[in-house]
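Format notes (please read before filing issues)

Several people have asked whether sequences and structure tokens are stored in separate files. They are not. Every record keeps both together, in the order shown below: the sequence lines, then the token lines. Line labels are part of the format and must not be stripped during preprocessing.
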Amino acid sequence: MKQSIFVLMFIALFCMSNVSAQQKYDLLLKGGHVIDPKNKISAVRDVAIANGKIAAVAAKIDPAEALKVVDASGYYVTPGLIDIHVHVYTGTGERGSYAGDNSVYPDGFTFRVGVTTVADAGCAGWRNFEDFKQRIIDRSKTRVLAFINIVGNGMRGGKFEQDLADMEAKPTADMALRHPGLIVGVKTAHYAGPEWAPVERAVEAGTAANIPVMVDFGNNRPERPITELLTRKLRPGDIYTHVYSGLRNEQLESGKVNPALWEGRKRGVIFDVGHGGGSFLWRIAAPAMKEGFVPDSISTDLHIGSMNAGMKDMLNVMDKFLAMGMSLDDVILRSTWNPAREIKHEELGHLSPGAVADLAVLKLEKGDFGFVDMNGARLRGTQKLTCELTLRDGKVVYELNGITRPDWDKLPRDYRQTGDPRWDAVSPARRPPGPRK
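Then the structure lines:
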């Protein structure tokens, strides 16, 4: 009797492994409109995933070759969104600090809007970066990268951020070199004084570590005009964030874009949205867009204030550019491939075979919507993106309507989770081979 049971179990396992061997793909997203700007794809395509990587993108992929098939028709399938301006160094208990209570835990605010990669924008400096890494970066499912602050203590408020003595290029560069690929740039922000030292030392550190500088230009001071910053101080590849704030003469009295921005762009300076709670105005952005001064990258400046004000989330910021007339393909470009290049992570932001399988499945809703700037002014729009499904490394990390899941009444009465995120809830007797919990 025991021998017969063992024989039957062997046969069952053999059959299951044989079926599995015939199926090349773990997951197939079928019939979605793929937007992959790097590869110049904007068309209905199937996307196959195997072992956490993009395996194939083609007009027709045989569903019999996939363990799981998901109907993506009616949706847009894009690379996972990349938000290069967030604040996620939280959990320290420090009040009123972006190395504390003003920041947010990333996983609660990324996957639900299709974001799979973020870059923290200067919350930590060289003195507290290791704590930030241990506390947040190493524990997050979201891919968290970082711009290190030129201020050694990071973004902890005025008494720290105005301290020129704590702005040191060498230890900042040394920390960046200790964590190549993780620290993607140097940040200078919020400085109120007349000196150029914060920018100059950030550039010195960025040059030593071969990474870009992101500038939040702080208070508008006649001693350090935006023209000099963009035409002399910054290097090609450095990033000017908060480009539509209007707080630092980005717009002339005539309503035209300051020529310094055009000159900076010619020199290779990158212009980033960095919406935030106080850095985006319709009266700056809309005329600039009409004039043709579009952003290189779309980012949120996510923190506890901006997420509850006009900014809200990454998709809401992207919606604003749709409302100002930017095409969906261009919005996706500025939310995926462009930011990936800006932070020198060109393995991200596209759906090339072999690339990491970070994807967003988005729906473009039609209706009557309103989008608000930092001062509470509204622009009406007719399109709004929602996130249906997010994959990180080929695994489902968020879904809105369960499009990857079976209907409960089609399952056996004792259905359970398998413990393998590729699979649906199934009966223990029908579990596929693989790791179990």
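For reference, the curators noted about this record: Residues 227 and 260 are 5 Å apart (CA to CA). Residues 2-22 form the longest helix (21 residues).
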